[in-house]
Amino acid sequence: MARTTSLTMALTSMISLMMLVTARSRAQMPCEYDVTIIAASTDCGIFGPVITVGLGINENGAVVGYYYCPLWEHTEAFVWTAEDGFVTLNRPEGVYSASAVDINDNGVICGTAWMFDIGQRGFVYEDGKMIILHPVVPDAGWSSANAINNAGVVVGQRSITENLSPQVAYMWSRNDGFVHLDGLEKLSSATAINGNFITGWTANTGEMKEGFLWDNGKVTLLGPIPGGFTSEAQSVTNNGIVVGKGRIPLKGAPVGASRAFVWELGKFTMPGTLPDHARSSASDVSDEEQQVVGRSWNVDGVPTIEHGFIWQNGIMHNLNDFIPPESPVLIKSAARITNSGQIIANGDTENGEIVAIILTPSPKPLGDLDNDCDVDLDDLVDLLDKWGEKDSPADLNQDGFVSTIDLLILFANWT
Q: Are residues 194 and 284 in the same domain?
């Protein structure tokens, strides 16, 4: 009994000291991602391996994109699911090329197709059928579909005359058809939709773009990024946080250099770039954790070095640092992230193939209470501090309260 008391007192003293000198941070980044490679099985013969690009992912893990062989003059749209694998989308008569860019949680897909003697057309794909979204003049001009929400509302841009330009932002649904977004400049494009929020860019000329946030008819223009002269919104959260890219002046770059941004309530935050890079672009942001993903690359390096990134809480991370060392891929860009943290990225295999890559957050170690990917003294301090509590994250076996069993579990996973 005396021996147990002495041990308890020593342990208590050690814990008290650690609580005074140890600062514990609550990181929310995953410890590691599981890697799933998605590649078309098409044989391109002597011209090299098939190129597969992932552009969209939904909350069920379904992925869409396009693939092609190096000398093809067209692309094929695809959808991939864990249940059905890789499936090429059916092309209706007159469509010779297609790219799928987004998929909602109901499995409805949108994208852009190319039609013989007509040009570029947005489409919606459901139940094996492709619905073409025409410009105002059906046989003239262009259209594209850029995003779709769970209600089946599609956003994009389309020509409003017989000419290719001007093109304006629209939203489309089966019930309401086309609705053009008012309050924008001569040129505009809607790039993302989330609930009632729509985002994209508008401009008087094609070069000087400015991001916008559209909310039930109210338009907020973002203005240029700090120190720059453009902004171009790419994605929006369900509470109106916008991410994208803008251009800043850069010596030797006549049109400037791309830089990622996060915009919220009129204020820009600039994530910057990965080390030794000068350009970046943010492509998506999750609703819950507001994790931003995108691409960072060097300026005129030979060869060009580019990496996918994830940014959160003011820190940009190279996604390649979060995949197992034995993974045979280099992640070069990240296209989309779900609210559960799954990412659709793109990169190269060790054999030089260009593939789409699903990154799925791995479960953190059991007993990692401070989310630093280790089970150590900090976690022991945390568990003992919550001793006896009910409904606590330190209740590792979930029996209702923190007890000796949880302490033993923590020790069993000690790293």
A: yes
Same domain for 124 and 172? yes
Please give the backbone phi and psi of residue 284, each rounded to the nearest 5 degrees, phi first: -160, 165
User: Is 8 a member of any domain?
Assistant: no
CA distance 172 to 306: 35
CB neighbour burial string for 235-260, b if at least 16 within 10 angstroms, e if fewer: bbbeebbbbbbbbbebeeeeeebbbb
The reply to whether 398 and 288 lie within a common domain is no
Q: Do the beta carbons of residue 155 and residue 146 sit within 8 Å?
A: yes
What crossing angle do the helices spanning 377-385 and 2-21 adopt, rounded to 10°?
A: 110
**Structural domain for 399, as ranges:** 367-415
Q: 89 is written with which tokens?
A: 């989308």
Model confidence over 341-380: pLDDT tens digits? Answer: 999 999 999 988 999 999 999 888 888 888 888 899 998 9
Q: What is the CATH number of the domain that holds 394?
A: 1.10.1330.10
The sign of the CA dihedral 50, 90, 141, 192 is: negative
Q: Which residues, in sequence order, are CB contacts of 40 under 8 Å at separation 6+? A: 50, 52, 67, 76, 78, 86, 88
- Position 219 in a domain: yes
Q: Which residue, among 380, 395, 413, has the nearest Cα to 11 in the 3D structure?
A: 380
Whether residues 207 and 298 fall in one domain: yes
Q: From 132, 144, 138, 225, select the one nearest 190 (Cα to Cα).
A: 144
On the CB side of 122, CA atoms within 13 Å amount to 30
Do residues 263 and 391 share a domain? no
Kindly list the distances between the CA atom of residue 167 and the CA atoms of 33, 163, 207, 220, 346, in Å, as whole numbers in the listed order.
40, 9, 14, 20, 29
Coil, strand or helix: which one is 170? strand
pLDDT band at 300 (very low <50, low <70, confident <90, very high): low
Q: What integer pLDDT is reported at residue 206 of this predicted model?
A: 66
- Domain CATH number, residue 127: 2.130.10.150
In a domain, 26, yes or no: no
